[in-house]
Amino acid sequence: MPDKLHRHFQWIGVAIYLAALLIVSVCFHAYALKPLWIAWGVATVLFFFGLTYFCHRQWQHDEAKTFLRKLFWWALGIRVLYVVSIIFYYYWQTGVSFEYQAADSWMYHHTATYLSRLVRDGQAGEAFRLLRGHTMGFSDQGYLLYLTTLYTCFDNNILGPRLLKALMSAYTCVAIYKLSSRSLGERTGRLAAVMAVFLPQLIHYTGTYMKETELVFLATLALERMDYLIRSRRFTFWNILVPILLTALTFGFRTIVGMALLASFVAYIAFCPKELLSRKARLITLGITAGVVLLFLFTPIGWEMLIIFKVNFHTSDVLVERYQQMGLQYAEYAHYKYMAPGAFTLPLTNLVEVANENQKMMNGTYFVKNYLAFFAMWCFVVAIRQKRCRDFSLIGTFTLLYVLMIAFSFAFNSERYHQPAMPGMLIMAAFAMTRFKRKDFAFFYSYDVLLLAAIVAWNYIKLAAQRLIF
């Protein structure tokens, strides 16, 4: 992609964000964001678009090893600096070193602290009994077990786990490069990886106590190892075992991620380019995969897969009922049949003062996802146009399946639940950007206008739902 087109994409994004912020602040001035949240939003948007353009231009001609070194160390340095800084920021804002409304984070921290104390006192059996009895299933135990292990080995230090998150997130950028460059070409791999280095979503969760960073790391590494297994044609014991273990670990963090990984690998085997697998090898691999799935089904993972599948698709009215109980207008529209079409784009950015502090702080972070969603969706058009759909049988299946599972659940409007799909969306967006044609700009500009209108309308709805404007 020529530099001038890349620059065009970057600064159009900044312009759309500033326009949305200005329109909302003027039209709903009584509820406009406070300067602190505006500063967070503007800084986030400028940071992502500006540094992505600058570093991609500077690094695009580097040798692969040099590029990887810069990629990893920049990613790690940014995340370590953010982790240390955000601890002081949160302490200044809340009096504790945890994020706003840190209910889940507090629960993870205090539970892991108590369990690690039991283990150090020689009561590991009691710790495991409590872990099984006071959590909501296998997918609620993996992260607690991980934190408990860290606290047992390294004491209850909140900085250590966050620095490990920074390391995992930095290596996630490397895994994104390897996965995308191997399957979609060097240009796509470099752009996707550079965007990952500066992506606000990947950076933000390294400074929290949520499990998103670890989950994204496991899911991305699992996809990368699956792709390597098939494309390298080296069916060794370890090459087969590693993606199985990584997939199994994701079930301990969020069950539907493991389910999506299994389904995407089956699709990859069935539809990958013919030169990668002969018919015999394809059948053997599908048979082995089916065996692994059956093995999962006869473990606690299998029961949870069934339960989560039912819960995910039979509780889509939870938000509708909750919003109705809160007396909010338009509550009936908080339903998958209205939200599923926006699966890649949602949730829209909040630019008014009625949201919680996390949403206001992350308004620029939300916008970056809203903007990149066009390119992730346009990727399907480019893939069809270039007859490369088979190349997306792994990445595309996982990303599309996961975002649809979230869209058809009660979690569609919670930004953190969308995190496992972000690496796939970045890769798809990079593929579309590097193959963008001038005739595509009509669709791009149309999306920009639609996004601007949607953000303004969304913020109007948030206010109108609480009868703050008439």
Précis, in short:
By secondary structure, the protein is mostly helical.
Describe this structure in words.
There is one protein chain. By secondary structure, this protein is mainly alpha-helical. It has one domain. Helix content is 73%, strand content 0%. It has 21 helices and no strands. The chain has helices spanning 3-27, 35-59, 64-94, 103-120, 124-133, 142-154, 159-184, 186-198, 200-204, 212-232, 237-251, 255-271, 279-297, 300-314, 318-325, 336-339, 357-361, 363-385, 395-407, 422-433, 441-465. Helix 4 (103-120) crosses helix 6. The radius of gyration is 22 Å and the shape is globular. The chain starts with a helix and ends in a 5-residue tail after the last helix.
Summary keywords:
470 residues; 21 helices; 0% strand; mainly alpha
**Main pleated sheet:** none
Which structural class best describes the helix and strand composition? mainly alpha
N- and C-termini, Cα separation: 47 Å
**What are the low-pLDDT stretches, counting only 5+ consecutive residues below 50?**
none
Proportion in helices? over 70%
- Strand-residue proportion: under 5%
What sort of overall outline do the alpha carbons produce when their principal axes are compared? Answer: globular
Mean pLDDT: 88
Number of spatially distinct domains: 1
- Rg on CA atoms, Å: 22 Å
What is the β-strand count? 0
SSE pattern: HHHHHHHHHHHHHHHHHHHHH
Count of DSSP H/I helices: 21
